[in-house]
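Supplementary Text 2. Reproducibility record for the structural model of the 335-residue chain.

All settings were left at their defaults, and a single model was retained for analysis rather than an ensemble. We include the record here because the model underlies the residue-level annotations in Supplementary Table 4.
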Amino acid sequence: MGACEVRGYVPSDETALVDLLNRVAVLEGGNRTSAREWRALLALWGSDAGSDVAVALWEGYPAGCAVVGRKESSTEEFFPTEGVVLPEYRRRGIGTALMKRLIARAAACRRAYDRPSRVGMRSSSRRPGTAELAQSLGFWRLTSAFWMERGTEGLPQVAAPRAFRFRRFERDRDERPFVHLFNRSFADHFPPNQLTLESLESWLRSGIMEPEGTVLAVVKDGWAKGAGAAGDSEGAVWSEAGEGMVGFCTTSFHAEGDQDGRPVGEVATLGVVPEFRRRGLGRTLLVLGLASLRDRGAVRAGLRVMAGNQAARTLYASIGFEEAYREVLWRLDLG
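Retained model, structure tokens:
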């Protein structure tokens, strides 16, 4: 490698790395990142910035960076990674050096020996070399996904399904039932996607999940638990206040915006518990989430959907989302 040095992150790197991320965003047509959003990423993944973020210097100049987090479920211990190298420094082994450091960090942090421990990474059609990198390091292909986008103007009209109402997430009231709602909604999701109360609190503190941008679908007042026609309330997640939650949409607003500096948004998660699907709840929640982004000034919104989730892809396309690029999700088994 010679001219390349890979080391741990120090706080004084923040400005240079945010600038690096934004340079890549402008070149690739992606979204810009603020210092606040950079810190939120570290908080979201539970990363210790000093040891879980790797910085690559080429002749002393920041040329790339990568971060590794840790998530644990009943089925696996998972270490997600994200990284970027400036285009003019690619094909010099920098991405390989960054990923090797993160893999070593994940192996050192491994705690679960009674179930698989895996490192994850994503390759993108916008960065063809990332798939080659994953394969060269021994990663195996798990599945693929699409990143889809649409403008926030001209949203379709939706009629709220009968027997439900929609409201914003409320702090100090909805946290615990929301965790159960999220996990019930994604119980059949692939790859597994489960939430803990600790992770939710991290989302809220960091701004990854914003109460004003989170819409909940609940059973209307007067529909008691177990009441009504078969299936009308059975399967809902009930709060201590007796309110039945059945679906949600979370969004995040990015003031730094796109490469032109215009604010944008992201539909982070959309879920409905299995017993209440195919009633129009997902469509209503999605449009309300998009409307909240529009009302905060976002001109465009994006979302990620698994390639195998045909129902979700059909829903998003019907609302005007179009494919922007494709991704592949990779896994590496730790010894």
